[in-house]
Amino acid sequence: MDDAMVRIYIMGKEYKVPGNLTILTAMEYAGYKIKRGAGCREGFCGACATVYRFKDDYKLKADLACQTKVEDGMFLAQLPFVPAQMAIYDINKLKPVVGVFQELYPENFKCVSCNACTKACPQDIKVMDYIQAIVREDLARAADLSFDCIMCGLCAMRCPAEIAQYNVAILARRLYGKYLVPRAEHTKKRIEELDKGMWENEVRELMSISKEELKEKYTSRDREED
Amino acid sequence: MALVGGYTEKMWESIRKVEETRKDRCEKQYPAISLEKGEELLNKYHPDYKEGNTREIHVGPSKGSKVVQELADLLEAYPRINPDLIDLSKVDMETDVLIIGGGGAGASAALLASMNGAHVTLVTKLRIGDANTIMAQGGIQAADKDNDNPAIHYLDIIGGGHFDNNPELVKALVMDAPGIIAWLEELGVMFDKEEDGTMITIHGGGTSRKRMHSARDYTGGEIMKTLRDEVKNNSESIEIVEFSPAVELMLDEEGRAAGAILFNLETEEYLVMRSKAVIIATGGFGRLHIQNFPTTNHYGATADGLVMGYRAGLKLLFMDTVQYHPTGAAYPEQIIGQLVTEKVRGTGAEPVNAHGEQFVYPLEPRDIEAAALIREVESGNGIETPTGMKGVWLDTPIVELKHGKGFLEKNFPAMYRQNMRFDINMAETPILVYPTLHYQNGGLEIASDCRTAIPGLFIAGEVSGGVHGRNRLMGNSLLDVLVFGRRAGTTATEYIQGVSLGKPTLNHVKSYIKELEKLNIPRDRVAPMILPDYTRKETKEKQLTTNYLGTLW
Predict the structure, then answer these.
(1) Which domain holds residue A157?
(2) What ipTM describes this predicted complex?
(3) DSSP state of B553
């Protein structure tokens, strides 16, 4: 079943490709050398956002070219770039409050709750819900809901309220991570020790001993239990 | 072929055996291997030890040393540009500090150089963030807990690296590590934490303390997205030029770094970029597909920085070793070679063979673990997929037996989602894995402040060699790019004080070409590669163009 050839339409042009390929590898099979439209090729970078629909269907779908198998009758095009707005700020001068968003991203408050962003998200993130969480100044929820965002921009391309959700989301996560989550005390403590020159001698000692002595220390070191 | 839960009936027969032994395995600990037995295993099964894996190179500063074949082909290759055709007096762009590469190392270098007052231009082949950093899943190491310290971290690293690491670089790595974690917190990175802010840390392969800090299984993504945001927010001092890889360094008449030749991927122009200092942060070579292995690496990981730095006169270290990540996806076909993070084993998953038997301690250093998986498949204990690929099971449901239901979906959203796209629920069924090309252990020689043998040329991240010796441990690469990225940014800014822009030349490229000519290297061997070629032979035979080979000679 998988080995059968399928017909796909890259930017409207028909190509026959093996049905077991992803959209990305199918484009390469067809002869495209990709410059824009591929990054990590593993679903983490958001470079290969693709819009498609099936022949005889009016509905537009969206997904990542590197994580989606081709199917017969796909009409597809990749987004080479998303020209969405990104606010410029100094994170150190901001506060984790809704006022920051009102100032930097006023359009965020014009969300019409149509849910088109959520439907477009290849990561199945509840995009509309995190936009609404920001409106309610619930940054913890916005940060949690948007955590898996890979910033492909598909949400922004579908939004009738012109919101660049993914840019709003990273601001929410940074404010939450920086101001609302307690810092690790043990990390601070270790840095203070290092500033005082602690551990310098212990490390220098290991740098000075022979390979044989190092091997002995390495094999006899104890391991913290799981 | 009918699939149930993503697998064929034949694969299910083996899965049932895995299920039968699960409870028993959950209660027992498989013992770790000794140093001697480990060496034996590597010798027999690790791809690095395969006859014909490397060859001696006959050109450049490391002439006579052995490097992997695929890299040797790029080092013994002509430049993309004919240096006589480039008019260096026509300068297209100028900057204080030129950073080549837009991953974690490049972004950190940019931030520190900018913080210290330099004007920075960051050029990158694809987009800023399209790098291995953004795909790193499992975690970042730092010895910041009470039962741990930098000396213990040092010992773990040096043992993992087979005691060949550069001690000064390892010291820099372990001593800077806690500061890196605090810097990331300050920038707003959302680490996995207890309610009081205590980091949730786990083991990685070869660690003796739980010092793996993570952000679910998007650790590198979370870090890279944050750094990229911060870089973009410093647009007054940091200029970003995307889709413009550097293809050659320029040196001035005194042999100092003086900029680079860039290639605009879209207009196909070669541009002259002058600078007072250059930082190479171009990452590794996964897309060379050493020994035809699939890779976890991003599209642009083609060793461009190694080629440029080598031609300019820098030595290479440990280029005969390659890191194969023990667990790449072996099924389904669409994701073969993609990463299954070591964090899955860090939380209790176990490699198991076709008969449901465990055959290796799950958290050996990566080279040993990978060799054990290869041994198992080569001994006939692997599982074959419908396309003929072979792998072993990574028993993931056992993780939920240990930590409770829902643990995998919550802590591994990327892995879980990726498998669910193909109807595989990793909380209920094991996943099939086989080693995949993951990391360039070696690279260009650097000092601990990222200086090199060439004044004004600094290097950071995977493109450098020495810190990991012959084998890197999990979680030390994210650490590496940040530690040395920051150091490079700082050192480069110190260096440019009082340095004026020199007169750029490509003399080193011209003499390299003369060496190549003497060796009768075939003229169509061209580097840097810039992007891997996945075009089919049938298509290529009809593409009678020169586009991807460089300037016409």
Answers:
(1) 91-180
(2) 0.98
(3) -
